[in-house]
Amino acid sequence: METMQQMYGFEKGAVISAVDLIRGIGVYAGLEVLTVEGATGLYDTNYEGKAEAALQALKTNDFVYLHVEASDEAGHEGDVDLKIKTIEYLDKRAIKPIFETLQTWDEPVAIAVLPDHPTPCSIRTHTNEPIPFIIYKPGQTPDAVQRYDEYAAKEGYYGELKEDEFMREFLKD
Ligand SMILES: [Zn+2]
């Protein structure tokens, strides 16, 4: 397969994930695979360590893919309370520190937040429904969407993107 460098023109990228499948795809995609101590792929993963590793990697990489599996696993277990908790952990313990730290950097860094696919607790398996995403770029005026969910995101600036449109939008200046 083509690497992300060949597809999107950046020089250096890294992936952080506890999941072998994602790490393996990362190798083929031309990304450096980084390991974080205490990354389990479950609700007890080292959120802070992964966030810190992503921030460190951003100092020497053009692109960093930080993957957290916990909410997917909670979906497979059909455990709604656990899934909510994993999303809250992701929000507070990974996204928040990354976002806040990046505000202090001189170099602007774009952030995207999204799942790779839905795993509804009701059916405990993956679906191929469209997923909601956020693209944050410093200095860019936000659209009117105030919530992060499947319904609100559809009303957003980007609408529904297909195939590699998301990556091209995200990496565009
Ligand atoms: Zn899964």
Structure commentary:
With 173 residues, this protein is mainly α. The chain is built from 7 helices and 5 strands; from the N terminus they run αβαβαβααββαα. The chain has a single domain, classed as Alkaline Phosphatase, subunit A (3-Layer(aba) Sandwich), CATH 3.40.720. The chain has helices spanning 4-8, 20-28, 47-58, 70-77, 80-103, 150-154, 165-171; strands spanning 13-16, 32-34, 63-66, 111-113, 134-136. 40% of the residues lie in helices and 10% in strands. The strands form 2 sheets. The protein has a 3-stranded parallel sheet, with helices on both faces. A two-stranded antiparallel sheet has the order 4-5.
Please outline the helices and strands.
Blueprint: H1 4-8, E1 13-16, H2 20-28, E2 32-34, H3 47-58, E3 63-66, H4 70-77, H5 80-103, E4 111-113, E5 134-136, H6 150-154, H7 165-171
The structure holds zinc ion.
Helix segment tally: 7
Number of strands: 5
The CATH topology turns out to be: Alkaline Phosphatase, subunit A
Question: Main sheet, how many strands, which sense, barrel?
Answer: 3 strands, parallel
In total, the number of domains comes to 1
> What share of residues are in beta strands?
5-15%
- In the CATH scheme, the class would be Alpha Beta
What's the SSE pattern? HEHEHEHHEEHH
Chain-averaged pLDDT: 96
The gyration radius over C-alpha positions equals 16 Å
Relative helix content: 40-55%
Describe the structure concisely for a colleague.
The protein has helices at 4-8, 20-28, 47-58, 70-77, 80-103, 150-154, 165-171; strands spanning 13-16, 32-34, 63-66, 111-113, 134-136. With 173 residues, the chain is mainly alpha-helical.
